[in-house]
Inverse folding.
């Protein structure tokens, strides 16, 4: 030790207090300094995700600014992004979630105005790596098996994984995960069917289909 | 300051003699949680290495100002604060990296190996040497986790370094190999983790005994000073 620390009984407590104060101040400053950049990065993420899920020719508008707030299936507010091309409403995009093996699985789905799935991507999950994570588009093409499907195609009873008598594959060693995703997509399509009118127009924006 | 070990000895200590995972058995919570694949092990190892290096340097620099009575809470505050800072900065300015490593970063705070090194080494040694210790311990951790992940992945999923290009960038796609079409699922689930860890610990001990028996005190250990 280069020099002894003060022996007073208050010294350790005050040191701890000072360390806490400085750390908190640094973190508060850092949070303020990074807030804009983080929001920007998250908005970029969402935009990238939204455009990635849509095939070319579906959107030329700013999806992030053309949104609707509706009550989702669970009652919680749900943000709906609307994809327009040349002013025509082509598809709506929103998040759905299901209960997987490791908790909530959140997926983003795009549905065209006739009620067909344009694309589905799992955005957040906590499934077993190497098993349930095959629902990620980067790891397995499985998630694309929903493309072009609708509520009547396959019929309602077959909107399930094969193990449950449905039309969708499961993964070896992981049934709960794909089962949750299939159920969430189906729930998303039912949400579309129930709210089609609200989803397709708010009157204020000119809609190509109506002309 | 007496008793300063040489940097070489510190390096050897962190990598082998006192490897956090297979010798000290610290930080087993993240070890079990993420080593279901080699890539995950590597990612967790690297993120921990950076935090260990930074926390060792910071705590060593402050070691003369922290009273012994409150050193543990002070270290925890410093480590947690630093990890949060790294988390915020990565999220803001290295968002792609954050998306891959984000899940590991929060787990590092609870890694007792970081606090262990702060208490056992950084609070007693000079800054430069503490940096070497952080680096050595981090490398030892990375090696153990990658090895464990590789063993579990090959036996459990039949692949090796799957998803490496997502973690390290597309130029590392060559690492991704397929060994078999499927594996024993058991190895990827938690019991497989305990099994592989036990085998690794046993293997390290066996090697240690073997190398000790091969060099019967021919070279007297160099004096510590």
């Amino acid at each position: 030790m280069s020099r002894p620390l003060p022996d007073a009984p208050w010294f350790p407590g005050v040191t701890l207090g000072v360390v806490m104060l400085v750390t908190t101040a640094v973190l508060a400053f850092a949070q303020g300094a990074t807030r804009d950049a983080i929001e920007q990065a998250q908005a970029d993420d969402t935009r990238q995700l939204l455009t990635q899920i849509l095939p070319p020719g579906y959107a030329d508008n700013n999806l992030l600014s053309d949104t609707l707030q509706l009550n989702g299936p669970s009652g919680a507010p749900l943000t709906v992004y609307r994809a327009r091309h040349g002013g025509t409403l082509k598809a709506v995009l929103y998040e759905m979630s299901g209960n997987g093996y490791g908790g909530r699985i959140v997926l983003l789905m795009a549905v065209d105005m006739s009620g067909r799935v344009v694309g589905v991507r799992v955005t957040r999950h906590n499934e077993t790596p190497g098993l349930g994570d095959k629902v990620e588009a980067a790891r397995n093409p499985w998630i694309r098996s929903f493309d072009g499907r609708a509520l009547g195609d396959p019929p309602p009873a077959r909107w399930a994984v094969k193990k449950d008598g449905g039309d969708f594959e499961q993964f070896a060693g992981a049934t709960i995960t794909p089962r949750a995703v299939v159920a969430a997509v189906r729930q998303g399509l039912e949400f579309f069917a129930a709210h089609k009118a609200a989803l397709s127009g708010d009157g204020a924006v000119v809609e190509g289909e109506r002309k | 300051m007496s008793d300063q070990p040489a940097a070489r000895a510190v390096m050897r200590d962190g990598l082998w003699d006192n490897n956090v995972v297979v010798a000290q058995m610290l930080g087993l919570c993240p070890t079990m949680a993420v080593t279901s694949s080699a890539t995950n092990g590597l990612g967790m190892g690297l993120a921990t290495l950076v935090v260990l290096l930074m926390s060792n340097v910071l705590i060593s620099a402050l070691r003369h100002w922290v009273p012994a009575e409150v050193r543990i809470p002070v270290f925890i505050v410093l480590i947690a604060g630093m990890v949060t800072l790294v988390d915020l900065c990565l999220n803001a300015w290295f968002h792609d990296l954050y998306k891959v490593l984000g899940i590991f970063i929060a787990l590092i705070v609870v890694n007792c190996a970081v606090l262990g090194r702060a208490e056992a080494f950084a609070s007693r040694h000079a800054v430069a040497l503490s940096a070497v210790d952080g680096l050595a311990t981090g490398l030892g951790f990375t090696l153990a986790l990658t090895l464990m992940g590789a063993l579990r992945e090959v036996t459990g999923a039949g692949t090796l370094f799957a998803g490496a290009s997502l973690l390290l960038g597309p130029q590392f796609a060559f690492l991704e190999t397929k060994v078999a079409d499927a594996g024993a699922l058991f190895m990827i689930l938690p019991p497989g983790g305990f099994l592989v860890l036990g085998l690794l610990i046993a293997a390290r001990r066996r090697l240690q005994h073997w190398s000790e028996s091969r060099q019967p005190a021919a070279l007297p250990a160099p004096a510590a000073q």
